[in-house]
Design brief:
The structure holds 2 protein chains of 2 kinds. Chain A is mainly beta. Chain A has one domain: Beta-grasp domain (Ubiquitin-like (UB roll)), CATH 3.10.20.30. Chain A has 1 helix and 5 strands. In chain A, a hairpin with a 2-residue loop joins β1 and β2. Chain B is of the alpha/beta class. In chain B, α6 links the parallel β9 and β10. Chain B is globular and about 85 Å long. The chains are: A mainly beta, B alpha/beta.
């Protein structure tokens, strides 16, 4: 299945949780925030939130800014 | 704590808020933050770079024991995008505060105050502490305050321009009418600009480029710290009124000179030449004809 991850098509082997996605991307859940289909997902829900085909996912972090 | 800055019940010893963008390196940024003595820095919310993971985390270069994180919504051109960005920034879990930016024009980065007001209302209702970046417009600031903004942050000049406070009178009026803190955000180029903002009565100053792109960011951070403190002290001390003409600091009585300037004005060149002649060769050399030496104004 294919999701859109940070604006780009992204292939997944099948339905996976956000936790699994972060793990596969080697991202620390404490340093990022995730939006799925325009709705922010709470960190404690990463393990129970399963991605579906065509989901739009944004993973953001803090960068330098003014 | 003497004269703290209090926003939404949170106390800051420093009135200088600093950015985290554009520094030559994370180490220079960290040193500049120390030199500035800031207790609040802004950060931007951006997509994680999934292809290049070599960049170190910004948060590792911020001393979070001392420094409060203020996520911004920089780069957002609609209320909707700013609201989404603010929600994501809060979810990172360090702050429910937001420096709310809704930009209305690419070249000037001036705010879209209609969208800004709309986004402020939504985010205040969601429990955010909203600090909107706005025009130096007293009416816009009043509307934002009425919408629940915890502070108002009028610009001094366009972001990154370094032009200084372009409309000091508006900043003064904004401060005069505001019941929330007024933070001058953007436009500072050098220390005197920050001092002027504070002398006008601003409760704080927020800057990024002026420090980060200075030739020596750490030294400039120190300068800004001192300027904000000096400007604040001068504001509290109460400056003298401006006047058109001089007012002598030394007593008019007891002068050994018996001749008043008005009486003397007719004496002209002759008097000055006589004075010079009596002061020795070295001085005469220094004030050779046409050199405009110090003797000319005696």
């Amino acid at each position: 299945m294919t999701i859109r991850l940070n604006g780009e098509p992204y292939e997944l082997p099948g339905p996976v949780t956000l936790s699994a996605l972060l793990h596969s991307l080697d991202l620390d859940a404490r340093r990022v925030a995730i939006e799925r289909n325009l709705v922010v997902v709470k960190r404690q829900e990463y393990t129970t939130t399963t991605l579906h085909d065509s989901d739009e996912v944004e993973i953001v972090n803090f960068v330098g800014g003014g | 704590m003497a004269d703290p800055l209090v926003i939404a019940g949170k106390t800051f010893r420093s009135r200088l808020i600093v950015g985290t963008g554009k520094y030559p390196s994370p180490a220079v940024m960290a040193d500049a933050h120390v030199a500035s003595a800031t207790e609040m820095v802004t950060v931007a919310v951006r997509r994680v770079n999934l292809t290049d993971r070599s960049q170190p985390s910004l948060l590792d270069a911020i001393d979070r024991d001392r420094i409060f994180i203020l996520p911004n919504t920089a780069g957002c051109y609609t209320a909707e995008d700013a609201i989404r960005t603010a929600r994501l920034g809060r979810e990172v879990g360090l702050s429910n505060w937001v420096k709310l930016e809704v930009i209305g024009d690419e070249r000037t980065l001036f705010p879209d105050n209609v969208a800004l007001l709309e986004a402020t209302r939504v985010l205040v209702a969601e429990g955010f502490v909203v600090l909107p970046y706005t025009n130096d417009d007293p009416v816009a600031c009043r509307r934002l305050e009425e919408a629940g903004a915890a502070a108002v942050m009028p610009l001094g000049a366009p972001i990154g321009s370094g032009l200084g406070i372009q409309n000091p009178n508006n900043i003064r009026i904004i401060k005069d009418q505001a019941r929330v803190p007024v933070i001058v955000d953007a436009g500072v180029g050098t220390a005197s600009d920050a001092a002027i903002a504070m002398e006008l009565g601003a409760d704080g100053v927020l800057m990024n480029t002026a420090i980060a792109l200075a030739q020596d960011p750490v030294a400039m951070a120190s300068a800004m710290k001192l300027a904000v403190e000096a400007g604040r002290l001068a504001f509290l001390a109460g400056r003298i009124p401006r006047r058109e003409y001089a007012s002598a600091s030394s007593p008019a009585k007891g002068l050994i000179a018996a001749v008043s300037p008005s009486e003397r004005s007719g004496a002209g060149v002759e008097t000055r030449v006589t004075e010079r002649a009596s002061r020795g060769a070295a001085f005469a050399e220094a004030s050779a004809p046409g050199a405009g030496g110090p003797g000319d104004q005696s």
